[in-house]
């Protein structure tokens, strides 16, 4: 897998948390919970992030946490049920992803394995970054994201 090492700036986000098994349920969370909330809050056409807080290889599926986030200004007023956080800036390995929801897990696995084989260790939570003009192809179910692993 090809990737670049980039310096990313810290980003303030507001998020809704999902807890449970990764996989198809995450797509349902985005579609049924996060996206309607995002629209209701007027936070469309902004960069979004999916932050995996737990490693599903070492955390029981029911305990895995994932934050669906949207980038906001420092002045944005946070209202329940959302919470605010800052995604850390710093050095990240960034790979381009293009595929379906079923392809994301294997892509992450391959990316982590490659970095480990190269002697690079993650230094915090990884995330997917989605462009402000994100769109899923309705015919194929494919989409584009950046896979970001802090080093």
From TrEMBL:
InterPro entries: AraC_E-bd, GyrI-like, Reg_factor_effector_dom_sf, SmbC-like
Signal peptide per UniProt: none
Domain AraC effector-binding residues, every copy: 1-151
PANTHER family reported for this sequence: TRANSCRIPTIONAL REGULATOR YGIV-RELATED
Name recorded for this polypeptide: AraC family transcriptional regulator
Organism whose genome encodes this protein: Duganella fentianensis
